[in-house]
Design goal:
The chain is of the alpha/beta class and 362 residues long. It is built from 14 helices and 16 strands. A hairpin with a 2-residue loop joins strand 8 and strand 9. Bound molecules: NADP nicotinamide-adenine-dinucleotide phosphate.
Length: 362
């Protein structure tokens, strides 16, 4: 198995992936912009590290060129993905990330031809967002080739005892939402085009394997990725969010989006997030469950549906991340691919704790 790098290794998720990699016998190069954060982590895991800023294209290409694959865990990816993608294309190195950000997928997919020419794989979204949903979408869409409508609902922290109210989200995830919300708002795909919805509108109930939950439309990565996977022209993605957020979103959503358009407000929000969100506790990661529901409908009104239950989202991301790295280093992948284009609909079932349901008991 070849050498690989985790960029953003000192973040909440990067660290989890580094630990899992070591448990599976890998020795990834840990990379990031802060020597002070990298050194203790590398020492504790017995790994090499490289300090490299994304602003220094030559140094980045040199570091990236020393491995066969980069796993980018540094988000918000709107700031980190493109410099690393360019370095990967320059040096012929595979690129993976765990983004959920629609513009980041669009940018990554724009490098498809260049990636094929270089013989490298570019596979964004190999975390909980969007590997499980994209796999389930492929599974359900395969059963209805003439599907015109796709609905996806995600419950990222579904069951288990969980911890405190701020125990479900990492700082990086919240900061990515703060950066993205004012630019893209809430998106759905109508007749192949992305359209903006009023935040908090369109709430509905969805039955998941463990419970029925209220969900609301959100710009989860599948709005872009599922279109690439299936070509279905109408796509809606829903998220289950804390009840307080669901109640407040229709009232204060537009105000929040407008406030976040101001850079100083985004910076202030990000600083507060860093202070307040340490990331899910180990208890939440181990006891929590996540779930996805997918349905498709054709012009005759016929439908197909299925569900997935997985490990808690960050736990899933940690375990799936290293398995994906192993697959890519062992395989012959080329071009910009969605997770299910690369690994098929059933790869997700190899990740421990994942169950797929064609129906739920009544
Ligand atoms: N797909 C999924 O299911 C999934 C799961 C987990 C996380 N994520 C995403 O992964 C990202 C990271 O999440 P997290 O919770 O691990 O975040 P985090 O704890 O805040 O860590 C972020 C990491 O990225 C680095 N970083 C951020 N901006 C950078 C930049 N401009 N240049 C260089 N390094 C930079 C940080 O370095 P410093 O410490 O030096 O700032 C840190 O190492 C988020 O976007 C999150 O949404 C996705």
């Amino acid at each position: 198995m070849g050498d690989w790098m985790i960029y953003g290794a000192t973040g909440y998720t990067g660290k989890l992936v580094a630990e899992e990699a070591v448990r599976r016998g890998h020795k990834p190069l840990l990379a990031g912009r802060s020597a002070a954060k990298l050194r203790p982590l590398a020492e504790s895991l017995g790994l090499e590290y490289a300090v490299v800023s994304l602003d220094d294209a030559d140094a980045l290409a040199k570091a990236v060129g020393s491995v066969e694959l980069v796993y980018n865990a540094a988000g918000p990816f709107i700031f980190t993905s493109d410099p690393i993608l360019k370095a990967c294309l320059q040096t012929g190195v595979h690129y993976l990330d765990i983004t959920g950000e629609v513009p980041v997928y669009q940018n990554a997919y724009s490098y498809d031809a260049a990636a094929r020419e270089k013989g490298i794989a570019i596979i964004p979204g190999v975390g909980f967002d969007v590997l499980p949903s994209d796999s389930l979408i492929k599974y359900v869409a395969n059963q209805m080739p003439d599907a015109l409508y796709l609905e996806v609902a995600v419950d990222a922290l579904a069951g288990g005892s969980g911890g405190s109210a701020n125990d479900g989200l990492s700082a990086g995830t919240a900061k990515s939402m703060v950066e993205l919300l004012p630019t893209i708002g809430t998106l759905e795909r109508r007749n192949t085009k992305l359209e903006t919805l009023r935040m908090g509108s369109g709430q509905r109930k969805v039955r998941f394997p463990h419970a029925t939950k209220t969900v609301m439309p959100a710009s989860w990565g599948d709005v872009e990725v599922a279109y690439r996977t299936t070509g279905i022209p109408n796509i809606k993605v829903y998220l289950s969010l804390p009840p307080m957020l669901m109640t407040l979103s229709p009232i204060f959503g537009s105000l929040l989006v407008n406030l976040l358009k101001i850079k100083s407000v985004r910076n202030f929000a990000s600083r507060q997030i860093e202070r307040m969100l340490p990331g899910p506790s180990e208890k939440t990661r181990l006891e929590g469950r996540s779930a996805v529901y997918v349905s498709v409908r054709n012009g005759k009104g016929e439908t197909r549906e299925a569900w997935l239950e997985t490990l808690e989202g960050y736990q899933f991301t940690m375990i799936a991340g290293v398995r994906v790295v192993e697959r890519v280093l062992d395989g012959n992948f080329k071009g910009a691919l969605t997770p299910s284009q690369a690994f098929g609909a059933d790869f997700v079932l190899e990740i421990e704790g994942t169950t797929r349901y064609d129906s739920l008991p009544s």
